[in-house]
Amino acid sequence: MERLLEVKDLQVSFKTYAGEVKAVRGVSFHVDRGETVAVVGESGCGKSVTMQAIMRLIPMPPGVIKNGTIIFDGKDITKLSEKEMEHIRGSEISMVFQDPMTSLNPTMKVGAQIAEGLIKHQKMHPSKAREKAIEMLKLVGIPNAEKRVDQYPHEFSGGMRQRAMIAIALACNPKLLIADEPTTALDVTIQAQILDLMRDLQKKLNTAIIIITHNLGVVANLAQRVLVMYAGKIIERGSLDEIFYNPRHPYTWGLLMSVPTPELDKNKRLASIDGTPPDLFAPPVGCAFAARCEYAMRICYEKYPEDFPVSDGHSAACWLLHPMAPKVKPPVGKGVTL
Amino acid sequence: MTGQENALIEINNLKKYFNVGRGAVLKAVDDVNLKIMEGETLGLVGESGCGKTTLGRTVIRLYEPTGGEVLFEGKNVHKLQGQELRGFNRKAQMIFQDPYASLNPRMTVADIIGEGIDIHGLYKNRERTERIYELLNLVGLNKEHANRFPHEFSGGQRQRIGIARALAVEPKFIVCDEPISALDVSIQAQVVNLLMELQQKFKLTYLFIAHDLSMVKYVSDRIAVMYLGVVVELATSEDLHKSPLHPYTQALLSAIPIPDPETERKKKRILLEGDVPSPINPPEGCRFAKRCRHAKPVCTEKQPEFKEVEKNHFVACHLY
Prior knowledge:
Chain A has 338 residues and is α/β, with parallel strands linked by helices. Chain A has twelve helices and twelve strands.
């Protein structure tokens, strides 16, 4: 498959009165055309900041992109001018946010919000853009689209607002859609509708999707590849099945075990990851997860582990994968002893 | 319900309507009957706007009901006065959803936890301080945290403070209103484990309100499913997951994405069309009829009765 996006050694910091927060500390990954990549991790692990860097939406100051290149469709985004960036935002890369109420403009009709991008990017005639807006609303499954196009966001329910957001994001037929927790604010039955919709539209339009979520069920439902982030770094990456059935990083094990499976016995304790993520003002020298890791060795505190390959496309940054490390049996997955 | 256990709380024909102006009435809770047994966890699930929070709040007297009654240890909660009311206020506590909004930012942790102790005059001076330290320990914090303010804590830690505050007055019954939905996955497990440990230690009774069905199943002994102000199904959590009877429960269960790729690929989803209708002037008959795959003419005419179909398995549906 053809590369669409390639991020290399991205580092983003925020300067605050209390010091520098190193939110993203060297992240490299790629997205191919038409595929779905899920980014999982706890709040504050840098997943949203990484995506904002791709969209160049990081407020600067206080934010600084300290290092790294972001190649999108052959161009280095970090070197583009703001003007050139405006052409990319909304027409080639677009974004769906978590909260559909605060990300839609309450004073603008929904149809006008969909048409806005078309008029700006594709120089479409307003009356034609309106027709296209109706078509988009139908595409995302909003009944009565001819009437709905002239309504305001407050007249839409939560699920319909998120559909409208998706319609806005997909109106210009972008090559990449970044969905930042698109279903977190929704009820499960509506969430199922939105996930189905995203999968359908991807098939129809061949858009690549990066989905940020902490719901592992959503990941299993939608993604083809998974990136696990912790404290500003990608600590494990691999295909969906590799991550769920053969995970190699203790943090990934912790994440997988902390969700109750339908078979879990009530008398058994849920496995939780004790402690909290490290302070990113002064991230640890070694592995950032070491302090919470029950398998931590001395080297984990002293040196950051390199990315050890597990199989094609699957790698994890953990010293347990070093040939000299003690053998540990993963507590989850169908995997074999390391 | 075996009949041998004691019902700590009996909810009989409880109704809570809100006047929303222009003669419109929002029926948030409409004729709910439930019993909560001593020492059990009753899970309450449903989509947003179905009235589950209103039910929880009415049960602990944060709202006055429009009709019906709530009995706590046999006494009508909304008729209590004086000494008895103080006793009830101590015995029934609540843990809130948003740990950021439910702690007063101007109060130190010690004052937040100590407020209930002062009001009920449980401990004074040295003993009070000791008790606060003990409570902090109990929820996995330590006494250095006592003089800090809420903004110095993470979401999970704040939720622990909220739990310590509820426990401070030695309650019997706690309404947990979505206590984990604002937290990260790994922190959710910590808080749930803490709640379950505390339940065993102090023989607490929980009403656990949530929309995350997989967590509710793990936490609860029995689960009640609400839809538009009505309880549509009630069963043990095992039964509810193995053989859900109400079409709404079936759809709700099939909609949860399971964190297992193979299951997800094989699964057939029951997709519900449309959204939950407005609880203002809700439809006649069964409230789910419009979105139901099995709807018959009778469903739109008559509201189905809430009846026991199998042992300890109640459902309100014309199919049974």
